[in-house]
Amino acid sequence: MQEIVRMVDILKVYPNGIVANQKVNFSIVEGEIHALVGENGAGKSTLMKILFGIEQPTEGSIVLNGQEVKFSNPQEAIKHGIGMVHQHFMLVPSLTVAENIVLGDEPKKAGGLLDIQKAIADTAEIAKRYHFDIDPKAKVEDCSVGTKQKIEILKALFHGAKVLILDEPTAVLTPQETSELFKELMLLKDKGHTIVFISHKLNEVKEITDRITIMRAGKDVGTYDTDKVSKEDISNLMVGREIVWDLDKSKAEPRDVAVQVENVTLVNEHKRKLLDDVNFSIRKGEILGVVGVEGNGQRELVDVLTGLQQASLGTITINGENIQRYSIRKIRDLGLSHIPEDRMTLGVAEYASIEENLLSIYFDKPEFLNGPFMKLKQINAWAKEKVVDYRVKTGSEKTPVKMLSGGNIQKVVVAREFSNNPKVIIADQPTRGIDVGAAQFIHKKLIELRDKGCAVLLVSADLTEVMDLSDSLVVFYNGRIVGYFEDASLLSETELGLYMLGLKAQSEAEIRRCVYA
Amino acid sequence: MLKQWLKKQSVDSKFETLRFSVAIIIALLVAFGLILLVSKEPFEALRHLFLGPISKFRKIGNVVETAIPLTFLGLSVSVMFSANQFNMGSSGALFMGGTVAAIVGLTLPLPTGIHPLVALLFAGVVGGIITSIPAIIKLKWNASELVSSLMLNFVALNLGLYLIMNHFRDPDAGTLASFKFPATALLPTLVKGTRIHFGIFIVILMVIVIWLFLAKTKWGYALRMTGMNMNFAKYSGISTAAVILYSQFIGGFLAGMAGAVEVLGMYDRFRWQMMPTYAFDGVIVAVLGKRNPIFVPVAAILLAYIRVGADTMSVNSDVSYEMISIIQGFIIIMIAANAFLKHYRQKMVVKEATSHD
User: Fold this and answer.
1) Do the Cβ atoms of B225 and A19 come within 8 Å?
2) How far is CA A356 from the centre of its chain?
3) Residue A488 near residue A289 (C-beta atoms within 8 A)
């Protein structure tokens, strides 16, 4: 087999001083599916962004088919037959599939106008060649997540990609969509394409790849044939320590209801029902998981529970108090803590220090105040303690949060939200995009709080997380609850997938079981 | 000593110091070049520009007098901008502050000592109301505070002029000006041979108060968090609407006081016929001082020094005062340009990041 890409001694230092790649060597051969695995922040994405020309290496070189190349932008990489599908899709929603696919290399009629017929024909042709089931005339905004990903892949192929980089392609897919994607990837491989598959889901890596390169803390720790290493070996190499695979979790002992959601409906300005007559309870001492394909009402549910939005209809009570028209402050004073989905927009002020970020829900508590003046020494000592307790890796509590890695930023958020003896925790994607070590730490803390009698609502797109951690589960589809599973451990991923896709739903009476008195 | 201190500084603060110094040096070099081009006696002109402000005791006085309102307005803009509100209403607040101080001075019979303080207080409140209006409009109807505050300045200017010219104008003054203020209303001059007045104590007090407010109080904390990330502040339960209101009120209060201090400290009548340029200078000072109340007076003195130097130069040489606006423009552009010297910064970062291994 012939080597197609070799990256030699890649060093990348970002302007904020983070060293993302430290002398990384990476090599792929033609026609293989090559996994690039590692914890978040290990430098996988950076390495691939360098290969695709989005970032330039501080030092090191790239050899493509035996020749040294330098890409100063993605266009140059595309010209050399490299394509990348990003974690977040880069499509124009208001344009059609065909228009998106030809964008950047459009077929033109005389006079420079877009030849839309040819664009459609080209799209249909390439979709047929690769057995992708796609309607070239559909608008991208009407497509499902799985289809959007297909469009991205086709787009790269249309632009002549021989080497295709997929950045965590399965993160947003249901199990069914994932298996479909894998079939397509195998087909691409048969046609001679080379695929780099960035992931940290080891099951998938084992299933589909030929070789694996593992990265840890900005360095490569080796390349292996996939069938010669076990999942445990890979994970040890990834984190550099033994991972306990099973969560140490005792059975939940749910007590009385902490949060009661009754007939909650949320209608948006286009009169669409984002939440449609939702009823359920969160009980003290249990973790209730919420699953669903993104965009089926989970975000809105979190918004109405935490006071970021008002429900159009229905009532929500927290420990007996109806929170309608309550300010966020008043809801928080009832003992509600919130780990937001998007930590950079809601969870932190990135230019503020760790200490200031920890303080945002405590700054006017009497123990920290002397009249209107903050007791800065006391606050500093408290912040130091939190940094240690929550193992935030930093030189000082005065460091701006933006200098930290994703996992450490999340620890700052969690440290703040968990430190006030919360009675109710709304954890929205609590471990999204952070490393395994930090994720485990957060999981442990959640279970600890549950055992202390806290009511936890866990919303997560990571099925493994939500199934392992939750005691019971509700499935959202189209703003409605379509299934309730009292014991999450009895459920399989496939079964759950059917509910998530709306292919299966429980009866009213079965769903009603998630409302407790 | 210096080496140790440098070692303790982060790359960012080292780099910022460097960037500021280089920006100012480049701007001065540009000034130097321009003066060489336009002047027949460039070295004479430069001497006046750089040494003029310290050539006479009176000139040093001029620097201090000019720095007083600049500091006030630098503080005003710093507080408002710290809440991430681009409120330019300081101009209007300053003008109305001056107007109100004049009216209080002319109409209320109060004893010495109390009289100017009452005038300052009224001026501050009116200034605060003026800068609060754009904030209220923004909160209620989501109108850009930048646009509405700039427009509001015309309202404030003409309202002030109307009040003075139609109700308090002294027909015997010879120019368009109000009646003479009674002696009780004036801020006394402190240093003989200059016009340095009691206002300097007020402004020093305000620097300390605003520094304490922003850095040490719960309100200052809420203000800074709102300014850095409003969504984060909201999510944390901070009432961001209240923060926006009080931050803009305080900013306007300071500008209103500045107007009062200027009118009662520097003049014996209300003499403004158009908008003084201090308010836009306030933006320059706030940017130069990085919105830090402690740096604001330093920036104000620097700007005042350049102003007085330019003044001296234009009187004593063939280079005109306008030249100084060009220099200022350069400094601001250099400082505002975040990516300026970016490559040098990257080198510093790489060096620092790889030196730990």
Assistant:
1) no
2) 26
3) yes
Q: How confident is the model at residue A16 (pLDDT cuts 50, 70, 90)?
A: low
Chain B contact for A445, CB < 8 A?
no
Residue with the two structure tokens 């297909």? A150
Q: Does B239 touch chain A (CB under 8 A)?
A: yes
Q: Which pLDDT does position B352 carry in this prediction?
A: 63
What confidence score (pLDDT) does residue A13 get? 83
Query: CA of B297: how far to CAs of A330, B12, B69, B302, B324, in Å?
Result: 40, 23, 10, 9, 20
Q: Sign of the C-alpha dihedral, residues A122, A126, A131, A132? A: negative
Which string of b and e fits A404-421 if b means at least 16 CB within 10 Å?
A: bbbbbbbbbbbbbbbbee
* pLDDT exceeds 70 at position B335: no
Q: Predicted confidence band at B337 (pLDDT cuts at 50, 70, 90)? A: low
Confidence of residue A7 (pLDDT cuts 50, 70, 90): very high
| Residue A109, helix vs strand vs coil | coil
- Please answer whether residues B314 and B7 qualify as being in contact, where contact means their C-beta atoms are separated by less than 8 angstroms: no
CA distance A191 to A197: 17
Enumerate domains of chain B plus CATH numbers.
Answer: 45-351 (1.10.3470)
Per-residue pLDDT, averaged over A423-451, amounts to 89
**Per-residue confidence (pLDDT) for residue B356, from 0 to 100:** 47
pLDDT higher at A284 or B284: A284
Q: Buried (b) or exposed (e) across B7-31, using 16+ Cβ within 10 A?
A: eeebeeebbeeebeeebbeebbebb
* Rounded-to-10 torsion of CA A372, A378, A382, A387: 100
Token digits of residue B12: 């960012």
Taking each helix axis as running N to C, give the angle between helix B296-316 and helix B42-51, from 0 to 180 degrees, rounded to the nearest 10.
140
CB A317 within 8 A of CB A323: yes
Average pLDDT (A241-270) is 80
Assigned token pair, A222: 């080796």
Strands A273-283 and A257-267: antiparallel
**A17/B345 touch (CB, cutoff 8 Å), yes or no:** no
Task: Tell me the per-residue pLDDT of B269-309, one tens digit each, with 9 for 90 and over.
Answer: 998 888 887 768 898 899 888 899 999 999 999 889 988 88
> Which neighbouring-strand residues pair with A475?
A291, A483
Domains of chain A plus CATH, in order, are: 3-239 (3.40.50.300), 249-335+423-517 (3.40.50.300), 352-420 (no CATH)
Which chain B residue's Cα is nearest to A303?
Answer: B235
For residue A416, give the nearest of B232, B212, B119 by alpha carbon: B232
The percent of residues in chain B predicted with pLDDT above 70, rounded, is 89
Return mean pLDDT, chain A: 88
Nearest to A125 by CA among A138, A140, A136: A136
Interface predicted TM-score of the whole assembly (ipTM), two decimals: 0.85
Report the DSSP beta bridge partners of residue A339: A427
Please tell me the predicted confidence (pLDDT) of residue B10: 64
Contact (CB<8Å) B11/A360: no
Instruction: Give yes or no for a contact between A284 and A258, defined as CB atoms under 8 angstroms apart.
Output: yes
Helix H, strand E, coil C: the string for B103-120 is HHHHHCCCCCCHHHHHHH
Tokens found for residue A51 = 């290969």
Task: In whole angstroms, give the CA distance from residue B109 to residue B119.
Answer: 11
Residue A501's CB is within 10 A of a number of other CB atoms, namely 17
**What is the residue-wise DSSP string for A344-374?**
IIII--TTSBHHHHHHTTTTTSGGGEETTEE
Residues of A in contact with B225 (CB under 8 A): 349, 352, 356, 360
- Give the closest of B219, B228, B232 to A347, CB-based: B232
